[in-house]
Amino acid sequence: MNINMVILTKSSKFGQYCVAGIDCRTEKWVRLVSTDESTHGAITLGDLRFENGQYANLLDVINVRIIGSDNNPAQPENVIIDRDYYLGYVKTISIAEALELYKDSEPQFIFCNSSYCLDEETVPLLGRSLSLVVVKNLCFKQQVNDEDKPKTKLSFDYNGFSYSNMSVTDPRFYSVEDGTEFDEAVLVVSIGTPFRGNCYKFVAAIYPL
Q1: 150: domain range?
Q2: Domain end residue (candidates: 100, 135, 165)
Q3: Which long-range contacts (CB under 8 A, 24 or more apart) does 64-69 make?
């Protein structure tokens, strides 16, 4: 089975990529995964290659062959790619066009609350793990975690609520200066797999407006 999708995330996942976007026909989210246990199902750079040797990027509309669903209750959008086929390039669109494609009612919260995590029992009840939202008053914070590794965190306002300390997995913003601010941006927020009883929300892509 082949689908056309617009790539909205190309974020970090176990040293490889988490690639997700909108199916152009159904206007629903899909997240590409592989059966490679060594990458924990993450997508490699080779998986993103076109036949001409170029690689798929954010906001590219691609044609991809998929095998079926990953059957992951926490991430129901997951579909398994067929790695025996190249991706097909269709076109590149703008983030404004992507927002038009994503016809979803604006939720009160980004996944149930204004926290950076949910308990893992709640997540399978949501029926999705990806969201595209327009937020305001963004502020980046550079931190060091318990393992002495740098982490980029983001705070922002959405629908009258403040969100803070949300981890950024968009590698384009890993080196952004501490305290950097944007008035408005489009975010892709993703829910990760369970970890110590919680599922954490990640800012998988940032498109300043």
Answers
A1: 105-208
A2: 100
A3: 64/2, 64/3, 64/5, 64/32, 64/88, 65/1, 65/2, 66/1, 66/2, 66/3, 66/30, 66/32, 67/1, 68/1
Decide: pTM greater than 0.85.
Answer: yes
The amino acid present at 25, given as its one-letter code, is R
Tokens read off for 91: 């076109």
Distance in angstroms (rounded) separating the CA atoms of residues 146 and 83: 37
pLDDT at 14 over 80: no
Integer Cα distance of 192 and 23 in angstroms? 20
> For residues 7 and 21, what is the distance between their CA atoms, to the nearest angstrom?
5
Q: Does 121 lie in the same domain as 71?
A: no
Going from the C-alpha of 20 to that of each of 62, 196, 201, the distances in angstroms are: 11, 25, 15
**What are the CA-CA distances from residue 49 to residues 96, 106, 113 (Å)?**
25, 34, 37
Rounded to whole angstroms, how far apart are CA atoms 156 and 114? 10
User: Helix or strand or coil: residue 78?
Assistant: strand
85 and 172 in a single domain? The answer is no
Pull the structure tokens for residue 30: 């899909």
pLDDT at position 171 over 90? yes
Look at residue 206 in the predicted model and tell me its pLDDT.
98
Same domain, 130 and 75: no
Q: Are strands 117-119 and 161-168 parallel, antiparallel or unpaired?
A: unpaired
The H-assigned helical ranges of 37-116 are 95-101
pLDDT of residue 103: 67
